[in-house]
Specification:
2 copies of one chain form a homodimer. With 234 residues, chain A is mostly helical. Chain A has helices spanning 20-34, 41-48, 62-82, 90-107, 111-114, 123-137, 143-165, 179-191, 199-208, 213-231. Chains A and B meet through helix 6, helix 7, helix 8, helix 9 and helix 10 of A and helix 7, helix 8, helix 9, helix 10 and helix 11 of B. The structure holds a DNA duplex (30 and 30 nucleotides).
Chain lengths: 234, 234
DNA sequence: ATCTCTATCGAACGCTGTTCTATCGTACCT
DNA sequence: AGGTACGATAGAACAGCGTTCGATAGAGAT
C-alpha cells in the first residue's frame, strides 16, 4: 500500500505514474460508462497507461477496489447530504437525505450493489450512516427503534436501487431498445395471463407499464416514514 | 431445450443421463452447500457425472441456470404461501406471506440476489408476486397505490435478504469465526469512533452488537405495513 | 558508488463461461 | 432389418478474468 501520495507525474516517460486518486477516478469512470462488467484490471490498466500488476500496489483485490471506488463517490454524496439544512421535522430531514442518496444511486446504478459492504474500508459510508441516524435522535424512540428505523430506510433506498441496478439486457444498453419499450414488452406478456388466476397483475399492469422509478421509490420510502412517524408518536 | 422428460436413467453406462430436474436440484445443492461462487459448470457437471457442455442443452447460459434454479426453489416457497389461510385482515395476510418469503431467503441467502430478475423465466416468482398482491385487492386503494405497496414490500423483503446474503468473509463460512464475534468486531471499531462526531453510531452500537436479523427485518416490514394500513384508512 | 525502498510491469497460472465438433443411442420410417 | 433423423452427451479448445511472481527502474540516503 502507498504510504505517500504521488507528488508529481513525470513527463512523457516509459513508465506510468499513478496515484490512489487516479486509480479510483478511472475505475469510477469505467463503471459509469459501461457498468460493473467493464471494470477489469486490464481495462483499468490500459486507461491508466500502465501495467495490470501496478494496480495491486494500491489495492489488494477487486473487492477492495470496488469498495474504495464506491466510497470515493459516496464522499460526494455525503457532502451533498451534509449541505442539507436541518428543518423542524426530523422525518422531513430523513426524507430529504434519502432522496439525495437515491438520486445518486439512480445516476450510478452500480453503487447500490457495493454500498455499505464493508464499513472498514468505506469510511464515508459509515459517516453517511451516522448522518442518516442523527435525525432519529430528535425523535422519541428507544435506541433499538432508532437502529431499526435507519436500517429500514437504508434497506428501502438500497433495495430499490439494486432493483434498478440490474444490468439491462444489453439491448437497452445499446440504446436500440428504450426503457419504455422494455417495460412494455413485459407488460404485454403479463396482459396475456389468465385474468382469473392473475387478478392482481391485471389490476396493476397499466401502472407497471411505463412507471417512474423515482415515484415508486418515493412511495416505498413514504410508507416507511409514515410508519416511523406513527411510532414516534408525532 | 428438452422436449420430453427423461423416462428412465439406464443403469451403469458410460454416458450420463440428466434431466432438467436433476440439473436444477444439483445446482441448488451446490448453492446451498457453498454459496454462489461454488456453482460452476465444471463443479455441476462433476456432480451430475457428465460433461460440462451437456448442461448447455438444458440451459442457455449461467444467468438462465441461476434464474431457473431460483424459480425452482421459489416454487416450494409459493406452495407454502398458498397454504396460508386468508384471515380477516389483508395486511396480516401480507405480513404472514412476507415472513414466509423472508424465512426462505434466510435459509438460502443466495436467493435474494436472483429473485425476480426475469419473470419470463421465473414463472413461480410471478405467481408469488400475484399472491402477494391479492390481499391488497381487499384494501381501499387505487391501482397505483396497490402497485407501489407490493413493490415496497418486495423491496423490503429482498433488500433485507440481500444484506444478509452477502457472503461472509470466509472466516465465518469456515466456522472459525462465529457471527456474534463477527458483529462484535465491527461494534468494537465503531465504539472507538469519536463520540462527538458519531453520536448516533454510539447510541445504537449496543443494539447492533449481536442483533437478530429476523427482528430487524420484522421491524422494517412493520413500518411499511403500518404506513400501508394508514393509507388504506383502516 | 552503493544500498534501500517505492513503484512499476510483462508474463504466467489457474479458473471461469462458452463454443465447436464429434459422437452415441434411441425412435421412427420404409 | 436397415437407414436415417434427431435427442442428448461429451472432450477439447478459446478468450477472458483476478491474481501472483520475479525482475527492474528510479529517487533519495549513506
Amino acid at each position: 500500500m502507498p504510504r505517500h501520495q504521488n507528488r508529481a507525474a513525470a513527463g512523457g516517460r516509459r513508465r506510468a505514474s499513478h496515484s490512489m486518486e487516479s486509480v479510483l477516478t478511472e475505475a469510477v469512470a469505467l463503471l459509469d460508462e459501461a457498468g460493473p462488467s467493464a471494470l477489469t484490471f486490464r481495462a483499468l490498466a490500459q486507461r491508466l497507461g500502465g501495467g495490470v500488476a501496478s494496480i495491486y500496489w494500491y489495492v489488494a483485490s477487486k473487492d477492495e477496489l470496488l469498495d474504495r471506488a464506491t466510497d470515493h463517490v459516496i464522499g460526494g454524496v455525503l457532502a451533498e447530504i451534509e449541505a442539507i439544512e436541518p428543518g423542524d421535522d426530523p422525518i422531513d430531514d430523513l426524507r430529504a437525505m434519502s432522496l439525495t442518496l437515491f438520486d445518486a444511486i439512480l445516476v450510478r446504478p452500480w453503487l447500490g450493489n457495493y454500498f455499505m459492504r464493508n464499513t472498514d474500508v468505506q469510511g464515508n459510508a459509515l459517516r453517511l450512516y451516522e448522518k442518516l441516524g442523527q435525525p432519529t435522535l430528535r425523535l422519541k424512540l428507544t435506541a433499538r427503534q432508532r437502529f431499526h428505523a435507519v436500517s429500514a430506510i437504508t434497506t428501502v433506498v438500497v433495495g430499490s436501487a439494486v432493483d434498478l441496478g440490474q444490468e439491462p439486457p444489453q439491448e437497452v444498453l445499446d440504446g436500440a431498445l428504450g426503457r419504455d419499450e422494455f417495460l412494455g414488452r413485459f407488460a404485454a406478456t403479463w396482459r396475456e395471463l389468465d385474468a382469473q388466476d392473475f387478478p392482481f397483475v391485471h389490476e396493476i399492469v397499466d401502472e407497471f407499464d411505463g412507471h417512474d422509478d423515482i415515484e415508486q421509490f418515493r412511495a416505498a420510502l413514504d410508507l416507511t416514514l409514515t410508519g416511523l412517524r406513527l411510532q414516534a408518536g408525532a
